[in-house]
Structures are given as structure tokens and as C-alpha cells.
Design a protein that fits this description.
481 residues, mainly alpha, Serine Threonine Protein Phosphatase 5, Tetratricopeptide repeat, Rossmann fold, 3 domains, five-stranded parallel beta sheet, 23 helices, 5 strands, 5% strand
Length: 481
């Protein structure tokens, strides 16, 4: 999706000083995740008749992030009517339509970009995600040619190699596919500290205990946290729950991690400790109430909250369930358990735009997987009634009984609509956008098997075949619950 600067550089004329000030402020707020506040500053310009490309672009982005995809798409279409020459806008419209499941609209948008810029690395790579290229197609050949260019940015080069890997994967050429995936990851600047992650989990195991806080709170919606390794099926479960009439979703919200930062800063400032777990056991009831309101405030800045139950689906919140339990004692947790080699391959073959630096190396993926499961095992022992370990394999092979158990765990009545997560309304802004627009299926099981020889560094980092056998035993036990 094009950024605001690309559109602004192409707009006619120069924005007024006051408009530019609003745009600069909006950019700052958006970077902080304060979309509603940014929108409050932009709307008076829009309502005053401004057709400035930067205003329309930023306003559309805010509406999109707040979950109002129809308004966002409408604003981008308005911008296209005004400036049909801005190919970047067509790319933005295509990305938005793709997220809502409108493949036809996405394909049309990317073709518009490619008509003007046939060698656009990002547009070709994005189009391949929506309508995969055949290995012997002209577009695949163009990607191979582009991959040799020395003028590509690191993001473009990574996207091209990743697309070529997916093309080889679809042609049942795992060796060639893996080489391209490895090239894509080698471009990324990974910054991950496995030892620091181990220390974080050590602190959790040593210090966190089940809270004696009353088991209910009524000053906000009830929250279901869906967590797990990235690419483990968290988006699927989010959409299963979001099909329930009582449930809304805030997507991959940073609200809990931001709240944890505030809590830690507060404890440091009041000289009650500097360790990352020193907050535990030191918060008064008034402080717990205050930080719960802080969490809800972060949520409301990122999404509209109108349901009695909300799903907070952020994979890395696996490590933050302790704080969630203290602040939201009636919260429920669902941890997705998927075969570690399928998860590892999926993470290594996915071209993440930001975050997830640990996916740059197979051994890092293994270390992260071990840390996450060690954390979850501890939480399961301490929060047995609140945490459900959900087997991905059982969910896709026996959907109805597993979804019934999932709804029971989250205190939701049965609704048939939950069997059709592919029909969820709204945008899906994760790498799983293609998979979750399909009916529940088993196509993602066992994808690692053709890549077995290439995944040895991951197996070694996990602890060898014995660790995987122990995981399989745990997964089978959780499936029977």
C-alpha cells in the first residue's frame, strides 16, 4: 500500500500552511496508533471541501484502521476520480479490496498499476498473492528478470524473492522455493535476542501467580485474547469468534503491550523495581482500575468498540497473559497450537512487512517457539480455567465439535454462523488474508514435509525430534479437552 508521502509528492499544487500542519500532526498520531485522534483533525478539512490528495489519503487510512472499510474505499475511489494519474492510489485501493475479500477489485487495481509501471516489483508481488502466477507465465518471467536489477530497494527485493518462492512452491519445487525464501529473509535486518526472551519467561515462571482479584469486572467489554506463534491459526479463530452476534474484533491490537509499557514505567518511576516482572503483586486496586481503563483507551484509539465481547488477536500477547489476567479477571485466553514445523516453514516463507524479526533465521524461529510454549505451559498450570490450548489440526479436521468447545470456553452460546468464518465482514490485515477467506479446510496440514531436509536448523533449535514428539503428545491431549 502506498504511503502518504508518495501521494503527496504527486498531488497538484502545494498544501496550505495550515493544511500541512494538520497533515504533519496526523502522521505523528498515526505512527502512535491514535487513528481516532488523527481523524478528528482531518475531518474538518474534508468537511470544508478539501480535495487535497494528502488529506483524502490519510483520512482513508484512518477509517481503514478503525475498521470502516467502506468509507475508506469510498475516499480512495474519490481520490482516483480526482487524480486517476496517481498509480500509487490504485495500489492502495487494490490492497484495501484484497483485505475485504474482493479479489476481482484487487486484481483490477494491481493491473492498473502495472499498465503504467509494468516492472513494479511491489505490484507484481502483490498481484501474485491474489492471483498466483504459473511458473512458465510471462509475469513470473518478469519477476525473475526484475530480481536481477540493482535498482530495487530492500523491500522490493525481498517481496520479489518471496513471490518467486511462492511460485516455485506451487510448482512442487521445494528446493528452489526454499532458496528464494532464504534470499528474501537474508535481506531483512533481523534483530532478535533469544537469551533475553528466555529471561523474560524465567521471570514469568518465578514471579507470576494466579491473582486473588474478584472474578468479574463490569466497566468495559469482556475480552477474549487469541494468541500463539504467528501463522499458527490465530486469524482463523478470531474470525470464528467474530461471526458470533455478540462479538467484535479489534484485530492485531497493540493495546495490551502498550499498557504493559505504561505499567512498567509507573513501577520504575515509583521506585518499586526495574525488572520487567516487578510490577506483579505491587499494584493496588485503584492502580489496576486505572491501567484497565488505560487498556480500553488504547483499544478505542485503534478500533470502534460496540460489542459486549471483543477479540484481541495478537500472537505475541502469549507472553503478556499475566498482565491481562490481573487487569481483566474475567478475560479468556485461547492459545493456538499448530505443528511447529508447519509454523516454522510458514514464518520463514512469509514476507512480513514489519515486526517478527525472529523469522529471519530458522534457529531463531525454533528458539522463539520453545520460549512461547514454555510460557504457555506455565500459564496453563496457573490459569487452567481461563486458558484453552486449541489444536489447529483438530480444529480444521473436526470443526463443529472444536468450535462448540471453543464457544463454551469463551462463555458464548452456540451460533451456526461460527462454522463459516470465511464470511466474516470487514478487512483482514494479516498475512492470512487468502487462507481465511476460504472455508475451513485441511490444506495447510503437513506443508513442511517436502522441506524436511531444509528445516534441520529449526529442528535442532527446537531440541530435536524428541521435542516435536512431546509437542504432538501435548497437542493430542489438548484436542480431547
Amino acid at each position: 500500500m502506498p504511503n502518504s508521502a508518495q501521494l503527496e509528492n504527486s498531488s497538484q499544487g502545494v498544501a496550505s500552511h495550515s493544511t500541512q500542519h494538520v497533515l504533519t500532526t496526523a502522521d505523528f498520531l498515526v505512527r502512535k496508533g491514535h487513528y481516532r485522534m488523527a481523524l478528528a483533525g482531518l475531518l474538518p478539512l474534508l468537511q470544508g471541501g478539501s480535495l487535497d490528495a494528502g488529506v483524502l489519503d490519510r483520512t482513508a487510512s484512518c477509517y481503514f484502521q478503525l475498521g470502516d472499510t467502506q468509507t475508506a474505499i469510498s475516499l480512495v475511489e474519490t481520490l482516483i476520480e480526482i487524480r486517476p494519474d496517481l498509480t500509487a492510489v490504485w495500489g492502495k485501493l487494490a490492497a484495501m479490496k484484497h483485505s475485504t475479500g474482493d479479489k476481482k477489485g484487487a486484481i483490477e487495481g494491481y493491473h492498473k498499476v502495472l499498465k503504467v509501471s509494468p516492472n513494479s516489483a511491489l505490484a507484481l508481488s502483490a498481484l501474485n498473492r491474489v492471483a498466483p502466477f504459473k511458473r512458465n507465465s510471462a509475469k513470473a518471467a518478469r519477476l525473475r528478470t526484475i530480481s536481477k536489477s540493482k535498482n530495487l530497494s530492500s523491500d522490493e527485493r525481498s517481496a520479489v524473492f518471496s513471490a518467486l518462492g511462492q511460485i516455485e512452491h506451487s510448482s512442487n519445487r521445494p528446493g528452489a522455493a526454499f532458496r528464494f525464501f532464504a534470499k528474501a529473509k537474508a535481506i531483512k535486518e533481523g534483530d532478535y535476542a533469544p537469551d533475553a526472551m528466555d529471561q523474560l519467561v524465567d521471570g514469568q515462571i518465578q514471579k507470576f501467580q494466579h491473582s486473588s482479584t474478584p472474578e468479574s469486572q463490569t466497566d468495559g467489554p469482556r475480552v477474549v485474547f487469541v494468541v500463539g506463534m504467528p501463522r499458527s491459526g490465530t486469524t482463523l479463530v478470531e474470525n470464528i469468534l467474530a461471526r458470533h452476534s455478540s462479538v467484535g474484533t479489534i484485530g492485531e491490537s497493540p493495546a495490551l503491550s502498550k499498557t504493559l509499557q505504561v505499567v512498567r514505567k509507573h513501577v520504575e518511576d515509583t521506585h518499586r523495581g526495574a525488572d520487567v516482572w516487578d510490577w506483579f503483586g505491587q499494584l493496588s486496586e485503584q492502580e489496576i482500575f486505572m491501567f484497565r481503563r488505560c487498556y480500553y483507551e488504547f483499544v478505542s484509539q485503534g478500533q470502534n468498540v460496540t460489542h459486549d465481547v471483543i477479540v484481541d488477536k495478537m500472537p505475541h500477547n502469549s507472553l503478556n497473559l499475566g498482565l491481562a489476567h490481573i487487569l481483566l479477571p474475567d478475560a479468556k485466553f485461547v492459545f493456538m497450537s499448530r505443528h511447529p514445523l508447519d509454523v516454522g516453514l510458514s514464518n520463514f516463507s512469509t514476507n512480513f512487512h514489519t515486526g517478527n524479526e525472529f523469522t529471519c533465521r530458522l534457529d531463531w524461529i525454533g528458539r522463539m517457539t520453545c520460549s512461547i510454549y514454555r510460557s504457555i505451559e506455565d500459564y496453563k498450570n496457573k490459569l487452567p480455567d481461563q486458558l484453552r490450548i486449541q489444536s489447529y489440526q483438530e480444529l480444521v479436521t473436526a470443526p463443529e465439535p472444536q468450535i462448540r468447545a471453543l464457544l463454551k470456553h469463551t462463555n458464548l452460546a452456540w451460533q451456526d454462523e461460527c462454522l463459516a468464518p470465511q464470511d466474516v465482514v470487514g478487512a483482514i490485515r494479516t498475512a492470512s488474508v487468502e487462507q481465511v477467506r476460504e472455508k475451513i479446510n485441511t490444506k495447510a496440514l503437513g506443508k513442511w514435509e517436502p522441506y524436511q531436509e531444509h528445516l534441520q536448523p529449526l529442528v535442532d533449535a527446537l531440541g530435536g525430534p524428541e521435542w516435536i514428539r512431546n509437542w504432538q503428545t501435548m497437542d493430542e491431549m489438548s484436542a480431547s479437552c
